[in-house]
Specification:
Length: about 270
């Protein structure tokens, strides 16, 4: 049974945990503005000497996201806790793919991910040895059929996906993410290596999490909550995020069953 924390807040359970994995987009900010109550939670956790990771499926290095959060007004003491799916992917690429030619699927704002090996970027997909998917092209950001046509002759190549999210809400606008393209590629028979929640690598790279009592907080059942379930962490779903309409219409119990997710706690917005 999912326990609602709207009345008593996160403070009612915080002492039960050593480490908090907290999603950024949809929990701490909406892509446009920081959520002040969520920022207050982060500061309270630090006061209590709790370990925390601001774990995000952003397909860019830690530094790029930290700069983005600085512009939003987040203090450095909090920004230092950021770890991205892009950083996890970059660590992997530096070990195994540094000299291989790749074709990038995604917008120019993600170029920071491969600045170390940008010379290996191919303009023609036919010349590439692997596919690096960080998102959708700006001029094809709603049309998944375009990617079927682009990829149909290249399903023997491995795709590295640096953001498993299918969708994200930027303010009031819903956008497709890299995970949507990767899903198309998989359905066509292609192989995808994912970096980011719910896959364990990003959790394990971000911090020493051995022998810790852990709570994972996020608004996405497919990534934040599924990741917690796979790793046997407790989970807190923020219900005013991606799934707000589903939860409003069906209730958390039915939505949890639909996504085959175990949700230990629920809260409308993250607050202390």
């Amino acid at each position: 049974m999912t326990k609602n924390l709207d009345l008593n807040g996160l403070q009612s359970i915080a002492d039960n945990y050593d480490l908090f994995y907290i999603d950024l987009w949809g929990v701490v900010h909406n892509g446009v503005n920081l959520h002040e109550k969520a920022i207050a939670v982060l500061n309270e956790l630090l006061k209590k000497k709790k370990m925390l990771v601001l774990l995000t499926n952003a397909p860019r290095p830690n530094k790029t996201v930290q700069n983005f959060l600085e512009k939003m007004g987040m203090d450095k003491v909090l920004r230092d806790h950021v770890f991205t799916s892009g950083e996890a992917a970059l660590n992997y690429l530096k070990k195994s793919y540094l000299s291989k030619k790749f074709y990038h699927i995604g917008p120019p704002r993600d170029f920071d991910l491969f600045y170390l090996f940008e010379k290996n970027k191919c303009e023609d997909i036919s010349d590439s040895e692997y596919l690096l998917c960080t998102g959708l092209f700006d001029d094809h950001d709603k049309d998944l059929e375009f990617y079927k046509d682009l990829l149909e002759k290249h399903i023997t190549k491995k795709m590295i996906c640096t953001n498993p999210d299918l969708i994200v809400d930027r303010g009031e606008v819903r956008e497709l993410c890299a995970g949507s393209v990767a899903m198309v590629f998989e359905k066509m028979g292609g192989e995808v290596v994912y970096f980011g929640k719910p896959h364990p690598e990003v959790y394990n790279q971000s911090i020493d999490n051995k022998n810790k009592k852990i709570l994972a907080i996020g608004d996405n059942l497919n990534t934040d909550i599924r990741g917690a379930n796979l790793l046997n962490y407790d989970s807190l779903l923020i219900s005013n995020g991606i799934h707000r309409n589903e939860i409003k219409n069906k209730g958390i119990q039915d939505v949890s069953k639909e996504y085959e997710a175990i949700v230990n706690f629920i809260q409308s917005d993250l607050k202390w």
